[in-house]
């Protein structure tokens, strides 16, 4: 899942207005940000398999340290704890931790049965939505649109930059999703895969920072 994770991050601003959109983006994608680095270290494994599902060319062979339910809970506690350590805001820290954990629960909807429950054993789950391109687009788009709508309803642009930053951010998501759904298979090279992930995250996080710093919660002066 791609758009769905970020849709949840947008929507989370309603319950945690003090948490920056950049932080929420990092939280919902934390394990995906960590994942290519573990691939590079040969700790986890993936295979580029064109046509593996209708949506993704990735065949996830081994990734329990980033994508198991057990480690989702651990990473959620770690990230929430770090946020609390710096901000001393329990509510926001809980939201950050749950945002990290949410990654597994959204992924389980789209993945084929390859998501581990723990770092031990071989039990894996997945509902396989990625086997249907139209259903994947429908579900992801619905979550993303709902999240952006909640964000727009609960924040206001301060200068015009807050408005156009959001437009640019949403437009970039649309382009990235179209490329993700209909573009060619990625290069079968872990360094190239890591580089593409770094570039994608750098653009998204930069746009999120610019957008959110130029918007304020509704009702706040």
Automatic annotation (TrEMBL):
Residues annotated as transmembrane: 21-41, 61-86, 93-112, 132-152, 164-183, 189-211
Keyword Membrane attached: yes
Source taxon at top rank: Bacteria
Keywords associated with the record: Membrane, Transmembrane, Transmembrane helix
Protein name per the record: Membrane-bound metal-dependent hydrolase
